[in-house]
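Quick one:
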Amino acid sequence: MRGFRRTGLIDSGNGGGVWSPRCAPMAVGSVPYADAAEAYQLLLRTTPEVMAWPQLPRRSFLENMYVQFAEGLPGLKVDVAAGRAWVVEELPVEELAAFMERLEAGDPQAFGIGADHAAGLHGLPAVLREMERPPRLLKGQVTGPVSLCMSTAFLDKRALFYDDTMREVATEMLAARARWQEQFLRPLAATGQVLMMVDEPFLAQWGSGYLSMPDNLVVPALRRVVGAVECLRGIHICGGTDWAKVTRLPLDLLNFDAADHVDALLANAGPVGVFLDEGGMLAWGVVPNDDRALSLSAESAGASVLAAAETLGNEVGIAEEAILAQSFVSPACGTGALPPATAARCFELAGEVSSWLRDRL
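Output:
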């Protein structure tokens, strides 16, 4: 892994200088559409500075965030019609051998994501060609190794995370898949950089005692996937977690649930302050991904970000304005399970909160 340096100011490339996000609106994961074009209409309207490719779980079970990135996992079986995926108890020797050969060859193309698994990703080049102003940042995403291995199981319901071989195989696969995606996105980033987000919802339970996720298994897997790419790296955890542990990973961005779990971040103000002082960035998931978004005002949501940024700044000795200059605004989590109108409002409100905050910077 390369020597790591966080950077809160983003080099826009091609002589474009440096860009500070200043609470730019950013999408998170899934949206409730079956058609990529419809999803991109929403993203182009609400998050044009940071263009993400949308996950479309309503288009196909293959776009479920776990199945989407498990493509090619040895022993994986998928029943699309039934909406089920599992791994066979005894791995086919030839499958595992072929997988290891592809891995050892070091060709990221062998771990690409097919259009049947990610229509939004493969539709991104055409969308970018039609944009009048290129986005500052292209956002990719990969499901993290902990969450993929906790959600994918053998037929006896035993999670892959607790099988040493399958956890290592899945982690290496995700690392290779992240590298492939970075190579796919980089040529498209005309004036901006690539941000690769690692989605880890299961880390909301890290350190809680509710699930057994020992640090000696979690940390190496995360470091392997995060360290596989050279672009900006971020993590999204839609819940509370032990942010002190997370900040020790080689990350540039923490995307957290600021609607319901901002206290978890503030409880780790010291490590988060060090992260920010090193140039790290925050993405405030201040828009709840539920019906509350329909009645929440930009002023109310924005004021909650200001208050939390002030509290954090006072704790660690960083000016509130500096924190917000190193920040994005997003929905708290993916909106793929919401009614389309509610999901659209989540994105619209993120944009409105962004504008409200920027007016005060």
